[in-house]
Amino acid sequence: MSTTTEKLLAGLRSKFGDTARIGTAADLQETRRFGSSGSLALDFALGNSGWPTNRLVEICGAEGVGKSTLALLAVRTFLQAQPKRSALYLDLEHKLDIDWVTTLVGGDLMDRMIFVQPPHIEQATDMYTSVVSTGDVAIAVLDSIGGSPTIRTMVKSAEIASYGGNAIGVGNFARLAAAASNINDCLTIGINQVRADMAGLNRTMRPGGHAWLHAITQSVVLKRGQGKVFEKINGEDVQVGQEVRAKVIKSGYSPPGRTATYWFFNVPTDKYPLGIDTLEEIVRLSTLTGVITRTGAYYNHPALPGGKVMGKDKLQELIRDDRALYDTLRSETMAHLSDHAEKVAPISDPDTDIPEDAPAGFHNLLGTDGD
Predict the structure, then answer these.
(1) Contacts of 134 (CB under 8 A, 6+ apart)
(2) Contact 229, 239 (CB under 8 A)
(3) Which residue has the higher pLDDT, 35 or 199?
């Protein structure tokens, strides 16, 4: 580094060092870090094994498809990975169930999750910048973009307040959050709704304005799949789970259009866990990638007792009870996915030619296997 560059850097750090990241281009070639979304298939679709730790991202979709659940699973992952940092949840819709939060995040992590219910987006923005600027927050969630009232709604008539207010308030939040996320190494998730495309062009329409769409680094839209799971509860057939299809519609870390499928359960049962069924995912994906091989009813892998186990239920039980086994299968599966990802693009295109050395069924890898 030249003497002149050193002097310039020293001056900038002296004047602006508390508010900006400053260094040479070589210094700022960071090693990007990522945290799991809570779904193995979605981690691959997002690229680099999950959400970036220092960006503003979006989860959007229809009501009841599991948007808040996916965000809360990310909160749990980030708090577990960064035990000295906290989480911030901004509930602008004022309807999040704390019991659901406790179930998904975990009671042992709740004392590190700041939960606030601001009356409007402007106060939410002030709260966000105040807390995130400390550098002590690993992840922040704004719930939601489309459901964010503005201060104009609070102090003026509905007729005056209705014109462009949401987009202005959300746009201001987006600009500040994009910078704050990067400077303070904080993943910021904005939950958003999907509106009907009245022009019939099959576009993913969501509120927030152009500033929001420009600021986000990644966007995932969730839709209900065809699969449903019913269980007998008090003598009645009750839907306890559903198939969810996630499509990455904006990403700086993976090819556009990647899709993922997972099972989401919102009713507790003895058979299925609440939230995303990660056991089903690890079995499905590790089998399809060839990490686990099947011989009749036997599943084979060196990390299994005796190298093999009989039956899918027994395999899931072993994975559930052995975290080291889960981590091994997850790591090997993600590696196999990455090895073949560049050969099949986009992965969601069923007409893509599959290389001879790719795992069988690779073009449908992120869907269900029909088992």
Answers:
(1) 184
(2) yes
(3) 35
* Residue 356 scores a pLDDT above 50: no
pLDDT-based confidence at residue 73 (cuts at 50, 70, 90): very high
For residues 56 and 31, which has the higher predicted lDDT (pLDDT)?
A: 56
Query: What sign results for the dihedral spanned by CA atoms 361, 365, 368, 371?
Result: positive
Burial pattern 122-146, b for ≥16 Cβ within 10 A else e, equals bbbbebbeebbbeebbbbbbbbbbb
User: Does residue 318 have a pLDDT over 90?
Assistant: yes
Peptide bond connecting 346 to the previous residue in cis, omega within 30 degrees of 0: yes
Q: Which domains, from first to last, does the chain contain?
A: 31-272 (3.40.50.300), 281-364 (no CATH)
> Do the Cβ atoms of 362 and 255 come closer than 8 Å?
no
Please state the rounded mean pLDDT for residues 312-330.
92
Instruction: Using the structure block, give the residue that is written with the tokens 């498809």.
Output: 65
- 20 SS3 class: coil
What pLDDT does 236 receive? 94
By CB neighbour count within 10 A (0-12 exposed, 13-18 middle, 19+ buried), where does 243 fall? Answer: middle
**Other CB atoms closer than 10 Å to residue 297's CB: what's the count?**
11
pLDDT at 154: 65
**Would you state the structure tokens that stand for residue 232, as one six-digit string?**
């007998």
Q: Which of 96, 71, 44 is nearest to 365 (CA)?
A: 44
- Asked whether the beta carbons of 226 and 243 are under 8 A apart, the reply is yes
Question: Has this prediction a pTM greater than 0.70?
Answer: yes
Give the list of residues 6+ apart from residue 144 with CB closer than 8 angstroms, or none.
Answer: 67, 92, 93, 190, 191, 192, 193
Count other C-beta atoms under 10 Å from residue 86's C-beta.
19
Q: Do residues 38 and 77 lie in contact, with contact meaning Cβ atoms separated by under 8 Å?
A: yes
pLDDT at residue 371, rounded to an integer: 37
